Every structure is written in C-alpha cells, then in structure tokens.
C-alpha cells in the first residue's frame, strides 16, 4: 500500500533528526490563546489561568495496537490523536493541546511520516487542537507513537470515574461493538489477501464498522451537548476496552453496583448483521469488544428529562448499592455477573 | 545483571495490564497542590491558576538511547525522568508533574519493571515531582519509555531559546563532556566483557564520568540559584546533544552570532585524562558529546557581577551580531566556524 501511494521514498537519514522535526511540523498553526509557545523550544508554554487542566497520555505500538497491513498511516495518525482526546472528553474537559513523539525504524521513508503527520494534522484541525511539542527518534524495529493530550475544564465541571451514586442512570453515547467487528472483517480480508493477493474485496456493506475501527471519532460533541443540556454527569469514562471493563472501573471507583440491561445496549444494524455472519454473540462484542471511544457516564435521575429522547444518548441501566453487585439483565431476564474480559494487551 | 539481582521472575501475563499499573503505581504519593487528581482516571487534573505551565516530552528506545547490558534499569528510570526535567529547567520553570508510558516485551518480568519504576520514583522524590499518569503496554521487541513533564513558571520569568542579544555573555553550568566519555569507557568494558566474561574491571578512576552517563542530574539547583541571584537569562537551553548543536539553536532562534572561547570550556580532570587515554580531543568531546544535561544560557552583561565567581556558572563566550557568524576561538587564537555535529539518532 505504501509503495503504490508513495512512489517517492526519501530515506530518513537524508534529512536528519532536526530537519525532520522541522519538516514535519512546519505546517502547524496555533489557534488557542492558552498556547504561548508551541514546537521549537525545550518545552511548550501554556497559560490556563481560569481553568483546571487535564493531562493524559497513550502509547501505540506496531504489532500490538495496530497492523500497518490494513491501517493506512494517515488513519493511524488520526486515531492516535483520537484515543487521547477521548480521555480528555471523558473528564468533561475540552482538549486543547497535544504533544506527539514517534520512534520509527529506517524502513519508513520520510513520505511515510508525512502521511502519519497528515492524519495527526487533520485530527488537530477538526478538533481544534494545537500540536505543541514532541520528539522524533529511530527505533530498532517498528513504529511507536506516544501522544499526550492536555485539556481544560472549568473548576467544578470535571467528572471523575468515582462519583456515581446508587439510583443514578447509566448512559452511553452512540452505539458500541462496531470497532471490534470492523477489526474482524479487516483481519479476515488480510487472510484472504495472503492466499490471493489479487482479490478485490467489496467491503461496502461493512463501511460503518470498518470506519469505526480505522477512523474512530472522539466524542467532543457529547461534552458540548452535555454543557448545552446543563448536565454534569456524576461519573464518566471513555470506552476503550469494552463496556464491561469500563462499567467495572466506574463501579469499583464509585463503590456502587449496577444493573445493565442487555436489550438496551445500542447496536448498529451493521454490527448485528456482521455478528450473525461471524456467528458471534453481539452482546459479547459490546461488552468485551473495545476501541469504540464512546462515552459511558452516570447521571442523576433528576437530569433524566434533559437527556430523554436525545438520539446521541441511551440509558442502558442504573446504579445500585455496592452489595447488590454488578449484573447484566439478559433478554430472558436472567441476572449474570459482569466480569472483565476487556482486551488485555499483556496477556499474550 | 538482572538474574543476579532478581531471583524472582513474575511473568507480566500473571498480573495483566490493569493490575500491573496498579502494582507499579501504588507507592506514588502526591505532594503538589497543583495536582488535583493523579493516576487512576482517564486523565490527571491539574490546577495552575497563578502560573504559566510548560510541557515537554521525550521518547527513549532500547538499542538507540540505552543499552541494557550496562545500563541498570533503576538508573534508566531515573535518567528518563532527568531528561525531561532538564527541558523544564531550561525554560527557567520548576517541573511539577510527569506522566510515564512504557512498552515492554514479555522478556521483562514484573521485577524488572519494579526496578525501572524504582528509579522513576527515586527521581520523583528527589526532585519533588508528582507522577500523575501513564500507560503500560507490551511491545514486540525491546523497551520503550515515553515521559512527559509539566512544570510551572511565573509569568514573565519563562526563558526561550530566542532571546539572546549581541554582547550577552554565553554561560554554561557545571562541566561538560563527562557523559560522552563515560559512555566510551562503558562501551570499551562491554567489548572486554564479551571476550572475557570473568573480567572484574576497576572503574573507580572513571567514577565521575560513568555517573554522568548512567545517572545524570538535571540542574534544578541552577534554576533556584538564578532566582536567588535575581538573574533571568535572555535565552536558555539544556545540553542534550553537545555544546555546538545547542549554541547553534540559540544563535539561529535569537538571530545572533557567537564567539566561543576554547580555553574557557569547563572540563572535569577525569574528562581530560580519559580523553588523553582514548586519544580524543577534549574540545571535540565538549562540542559534540552530548547527554550532559547542563544548562547553556545567555545573560545580559549588566548581570555579570551577580554570577561572577560562582563555581556553578562559567562564562565561555559572548554573543555577536548575526553577520559575524558562529566561531570557536581556539587556544591558538584561530577562528573556526562552529558546525553541528551533535549526536543524530537518525543518521544510521
């Protein structure tokens, strides 16, 4: 894929480290008043006089978090930013700045890094983020991307994982399970490609779920919506590891239990049909799939009228006393304990 | 070295990602009022109402930036923090928080990561830093450490690379070239060890330069000293890539030239004697060696009386008009153009 798109291949050594950073960052424009100084000094300088700031960081490793055989570099750059913005939004904060560090082996030409930065810059533009620093270095193998995001939130509006109370409603944005099923389709096509490199698969019937995997969007709009609706969730987390794992985080940190209703979990029709095709239970996918980057929150019952009927938010359960435990209420009205089966990057 | 020190080897998979992070961060204590929320949520929350904040990040890659055959993991953790604190101090800011992300292959047992975090925690304690977030994941090969540091500085006290004026004095803290010569000694001993694994080298005569390489200290004390002396440098940078490369950064960004005096460059006696032993020119080492993490600054001539005679600060030259160019004035009073030969991680 790289060769076709980039007939020109400039070796990294031709530019050198300093000029590479200059080259990759020369198109950066700054738009936040809080950014006093961006790329080009020992550190960026920021000014957040009237806000609290949030800081979050994520590391993406080739072969663990992404597979370049089906992940275009532009999308990878975009996704690396989204993963971090999502963490800021999960604090009910607006992301404002990022730093990006990259380690690459010499098998990547300069043009490949331009693609990667193209995705990063697109994400920054769409989400109004200033890229203010970073580090570019070589690696002995593969590509590693480390992004740190900084955001701001008005004092008192920050939302932790630990604030849920019994009787609060459990609410999720958008729909879930799509990113995981998109990955299943891409991995199947990769196997087909290995057997027959000339196959031209028609993936249009999977377009939504493949986009959920390759080009996820962080839910900035939900933070803006909550502000407009004048709802401050009692707790919030982003769904990176699957619904069950995130619910357990909220329950443990808030010292509450939960009743989650299987029939309320929002699934896209493409997720349902692809689960049928792959013979996988769609509830299992929603609970354990991960990478959807939707927001999971709890809200006070008094706020229910404000969110009722909003197509972006779905009530999927309610919080209980801790002693009641964490349960999925199935369509057959069985109570099944919720256990963490989230994607565990260290298990194999 | 690992086997001797750590007879117990717990596979990473035994703990899993969440419990590993919990395990490694359970000893963290927070000491800054600006840290509202540290590890354990989607993001850390910080409060910097009266200051500007600085942000910097660095990525350290096994086989590129460090060699575990002579770099103990505890020292590596310590150094990874120092590299970033040094960038904060180079802004004339006090570092206050860090995030640490680590990617490791399964060849590292939990005990190895404990060693690494031991060094990180020691650095945090000694430099009064709150560890507020991070990410731990697996890698397909080797160890990667990404650290982001956050610091604060009173508005108006921040120092950029771009503020130097003609006639300003060029000043360096401590002495330089030690870290590079320490590396030469360590690499020689590694080769000796390959031939004769039973050799027990006496490295005591190299103790200072080896410590400069394995356990560098960021110059927090210099930022404190400058405040006490009531000196705000006109420009500042930390010496990570060698004196010549950092001088060029200041000259280019400040649009000035420089006269650097070879006979003023501060060198430790161990650097001089080891350079003689290795038959390397000590000025070349000082100019191109790197990794000393001293601070290079320019100060106004009117501030000279305040720093005069201070054993921590050495005047090594002065800034000139841009047109004059950048020159080293040798002991033989020759004018040699300064060119960047700094360590370039992408050149091979």
UniProtKB/TrEMBL annotation, chains A, B:
Highest taxon in the source lineage: Bacteria
Residues reported to bind Mg(2+) 3: 42, 87, 238
Every PurM-like N-terminal domain range: 40-153
Residue sites binding Mg(2+) 5 per the record: 241
Binding site for Mg(2+) 4: 42, 56, 87
Residues the entry annotates as binding substrate: 65, 291, 343
UniProt: Mg(2+) 2 binding residues: 58, 87
This protein's UniProt keywords: ATP-binding, Kinase, Magnesium, Metal-binding, Nucleotide-binding, Thiamine biosynthesis, Transferase
Gene Ontology MF terms in the entry: thiamine-phosphate kinase activity
Function: Catalyzes the ATP-dependent phosphorylation of thiamine-monophosphate (TMP) to form thiamine-pyrophosphate (TPP), the active form of vitamin B1.
Protein name per its UniProtKB record: Thiamine-monophosphate kinase
Organism listed in the record: Winogradskyella alexanderae
Enzyme class: transferase
Annotated binding of ATP, by residue: 117, 134-135, 161, 240
UniProt-annotated binding residues for Mg(2+) 1: 57-58, 135
Pfam family, one: AIRS
